# Entry
Amino acid sequence: MNYTSEYIQAESAHRVRVLSEALPYIQFLSGRTVVIKYGGAAMKDGSLKETVIRDIVFLSCVGIRPVIVHGGGPEINSWLAKLNIEPQFKDGLRVTDAPTMDVVEMVLVGRVNKELVSLINKEGALAVGLCGKDGNLITARHLSEADVGFVGEVAVINPDLIESLVEKGYVPVISSVAADETGQAYNINADTVAGELAAALGAEKMILLTDTPGILRDYKDPSTLITKLDIPQTRKLMQDGIVSGGMIPKVNCCVRALAQGVRTAHIIDGRIPHALLLEIFTNEGIGSMIVGSEHHAGRL
# Structure
């Protein structure tokens, strides 16, 4: 046996071990809904985007029901610049006047959403692009806490359309634009939409793809990653200031989803190739998993 054949045999054995480890997770999750918030570097980097799309298609092919919620901030900024509209932010929220809202809707619904749908279809699954307006999926209301224009929050989720699509094997891809009862369009934070939608669908998991390793005890040190915690522990980390800044709304969204019945919430690093599969199908995972209770055993 030469070196090449030994190497090939070792690689084949490794693949078999990976598949064997993934089997109980595939069996447990088959037929269950996983809501994935897609954003960050994994949406901007071409090679990362390809791996995320392939991961989503893999989930669909093994019987899991992925539902995708996406943002698109960088592309919105790009189009605002082309139209000579200066992007403005206040307390971390995009100031969304009427012209900006038009651009947000055009980019999220008309460009980003349809690109993701096309990529998923190309890889062999069947995706359908939607926004909150379709089938009254999301009814919005004005976010009254800040004077930022047409920025909204979720008032009501009507999951009937999504449930019908996933039942028939489609992958819903949802942009976070919705309208209020008068028809006025609003821009809603995609993390918030993912959490509320996961709760309304009774999802098994909600996964946030981010540009951080997860929840860190020291935000400067990736080795301090907290791989598993429950709601009381999470709230204590926020009270102690360990969870701070831009991580606070993400963690709050996870806690709210868990409180409404979602079984596990995950914050993972979308900059790592195949982050979704590593988190879902391996014993160790790669990010932070938040559960409703400390009595939740294992990663299933």
